[in-house]
Amino acid sequence: xxxxxxxxxxxxxxxxxxxxxxxxxxxxxxxxxxxxxxxxxxxxxxxxxxxxxxxxxxxxxxxxxxxxxxxxxxxxxxxxxxxxxxxxxxxxxxxxxxxxxxxxxxxxxxxxxxxxxxxxxxxxxxxxxxxxxxxxxxxxxxxxxxxxxx
Length: 150
Fold this sequence. Notes:
Elements: H1 2-17, E1 42-45, E2 51-56, E3 72-77, E4 83-88, E5 94-97, E6 108-109, E7 115-118, E8 121-126, E9 129-133, E10 139-142, E11 147-149
């Protein structure tokens, strides 16, 4: 009888020390529910090297997302003073002055007389400067003399 008691105690101890049953793996999201991968920014500049733009696609990049999550165009002019114009795909843009930085310009060179277009933005390169329009038809103009939004 002592033998049966020892077996019962041992069995109870083993049951108490057994790991809990495995939980099923969490369901994986469907392809349509998976997060959208970050896009790549795109840069271009005018032949002078004084004016250049950065295009941020809708949803942003791995390191930057526009405030409204939409596509954004940031265009810089280095001289005579450093100025940046930021435009969303819709709505008015913003002229930023006295930024204290001058990281402009790099990327594809858009020859004078040529255009560049991505998403809702279309830009025209000219010896007189750069003109870009967004989806609302609002325009930015950058040249040595002008930094404006219309």
